[in-house]
Amino acid sequence: MTLRPLPGLLALLSLAPAVDTHAAESWAVFNVRDFGAVGDGATKDTAAFQKALDTGDDAILLKSGRGLNGARLGKPVEDVLITGCTLRCSRFAAIGIGREISGGVRNIRIEHSKLSGKIHAIDLKTRIGRAGVRENIVGDDLNILSGGFLRINLTVGGNANTADDPVEGLVGYPSAKNLSFSNVRLANVTGVVDAVQVAPEKPVEGFSLTNISGTATKGIDLQHVKGAVLRDITSTALRARSSRRPTSRARDST
Questions:
Q1: Cα separations in angstroms, 60 against 52, 126, 147
Q2: Which fold does the domain 2-251 belong to in CATH?
Q3: For a 10 Å CB count at each end of the chain, is N or C smaller?
Q4: How many CB atoms lie within 10 A of CB 196?
């Protein structure tokens, strides 16, 4: 699947294979005409589209089912290319991967795009009990204009008011491997990478940051990451921090 900016196409998407009735905690489909779009082929409807995007959670959202049913059926979101897009979300992330990804996510490529999120530009999110593998997620040639660049949260969060059918035991711990991001430009973002919500029982396996430049309030924070490669990173901190808390740190990252 390839997502490209096209005239008249709303980029507010929830990609969720039909695995069960609990595929999403809460998502909605918006009609851009309700936000002022004309759709006559001549009127520029960009502002109406952006209003619709700002109403939702994440601008693009990838999901594959939640809990035991999603894991049992195992229908991943896969082979997705997001290219040449300008995405802005005023509530959460420009691109959200999860939280309902018990069926797995693999072979996702994000390239040649401008991303603005209120909290994060790219948010890889799930929690213990939802199982599933997130693998081969690549970002290249990205401009990050607001929020933090990247968060990896594999342990906690989500809507606590929904029945979850958790996957018990170690198999219920989500995993992630082969995550790679390169040629990323940061413009006064809140942070580069926040990847501390990772269980030691299922560390991230394979993580690469290459040619990252720009300005950020916070640096890189990794925990329980194996095979981390950090190369050609020239991010400048916007705010001084105590020498006891460096702007970039890695824990269990080799």
A1: 12, 16, 16
A2: Pectate Lyase C-like (2.160.20)
A3: C
A4: 16
Tokens of 120: 């994060």
- pTM of the prediction? 0.78
Structure tokens at 19: 């695995």
CB-based contact 51:100 (threshold 8 Å): no
> Which residues does 218 contact at the CB level (< 8 Å), separation at least 6?
148, 190, 191, 192, 194, 237, 241, 247
Spatial distance between the Cα atoms of 31 and 52, rounded to a whole number of angstroms = 8
> How does strand 86-89 pair with strand 77-83?
unpaired
Predicted confidence (pLDDT) per residue in 67-116, tens digit:
787 777 778 888 999 998 888 887 889 999 977 878 889 999 999 999 99
CB neighbours of 21 closer than 8 A, spacing ≥ 6?
Answer: none
Instruction: Write out the two tokens for 169.
Output: 């035991």
Measured between alpha carbons, how far is 63 from 21 in angstroms, rounded to an integer? 13
Query: What six digits make up the tokens of 219?
Result: 């640096």
The residues near 211 (Cβ < 8 Å, ≥ 6 apart) are 182, 183, 184, 231, 232, 233
- CA 143 vs CA 108, 111, 229: distances in Å: 18, 10, 21
H-state helical runs in 127-249: none
Whole-angstrom Cα distance, residue 254 to residue 227? Answer: 5
Strand, coil or helix: what is 133?
strand
